[in-house]
Amino acid sequence: MQEINIKELKNSYRIKSKEYRKSLDSEHKKELDLKIINNLLNLDEVKKSTVILSYISTQIEIETDCFLTKMLMQNKCVAVPKCVENTRNMNFYMINSLSDTFKQSFGVREPNKNCPKLDDFENSVCIIPALMFDKEGFRLGYGKGYYDRFLSDYKGLKIGLCYQNCLVDKLPHGFFDVAVDIIVTENEVIYI
Ligand code: ADP
Ligand code: MG
């Protein structure tokens, strides 16, 4: 498939999934988020890992606050992403609590300046947000490729979170798209 077609197709899927997320009322969203996080917490791979890399959710994403707090309470090393200015790269920084983060001007919470950067990803899992996933583990993000760049070099386990409604049979994917190993929805856990 040509690069241009992939881009257009991805954009049409982005519009659909954003519409779905906007259509969720807040009580229903809370219910779905809770089920997804419970399924995530029940995974042996999460229980066994000692290092958790995870996004911090915005209002329209699957909420990770309670997950992050639980991981910290279990004394795991928890690191959250921060974009590198003027690039499409991101790095992960360790936090001791959610109060080690602050809301950036663009509305995303990022780790404070004094949080140490994490470079050793041994025994880690990475929890990945998405607009959609397909059943082969391919991911649709916002279209900037931040996760594809980070994951190109990441050797740990990749776990994607999404609503069942945002899981499709096949998404268009390009050369740089990195698939996840496990997808967790409110209804099921899929091992790719
Ligand atoms: P997303 O993954 O956020 O949905 P895309 O997959 O559409 O976004 O990627 C956005 C752009 O970033 C694409 O043009 C893609 O080719 C580019 N890109 C992704 N990963 C890399 C990489 N590792 N190196 C160079 N360019 C990349
Ligand atoms: Mg991609």
Please give a structural write-up.
By secondary structure, the protein is an alpha/beta fold. The chain has one domain (2-191): Rossmann fold, CATH 3.40.50.10420. It has helices at residues 3-23, 26-41, 44-48, 65-73, 146-151; strands spanning 51-54, 77-83, 90-95, 101-103, 109-111, 124-128, 132-134, 139-140, 157-161, 167-168, 182-184, 189-191. Strands 3-2-1-6-9-11-12 form a seven-stranded mixed beta sheet. The protein has a three-stranded mixed beta sheet with strand order 8-7-10. Strand 4 and strand 5 (109-111) form a beta hairpin. The model has no long low-confidence stretch (mean pLDDT 96). Magnesium ion (MG) binds at residues 141, 145, 148, 177. Residues 141, 145, 148, 177 line the site of magnesium ion (MG).
Helical percentage: 25-40%
Using DSSP, what is the number of strands?
A: 12
Low-confidence regions: none
CATH topology: Rossmann fold
Beta-strand portion reads 15-25%
- Strand order in the sheet with the most strands: 3-2-1-6-9-11-12
What profile does the largest beta sheet have? 7 strands, mixed
CATH architecture: 3-Layer(aba) Sandwich
In total, the number of domains comes to 1
Give the SSE order as H and E letters. HHHEHEEEEEEEHEEEE
Rounded mean pLDDT score: 96
| First-residue to last-residue Cα separation | 23 Å
Structural category is: alpha/beta
Which ligands accompany this protein? adenosine-5'-diphosphate, magnesium ion
Number of helices: 5
* Rg of Cα set: 16 Å
Shape: globular
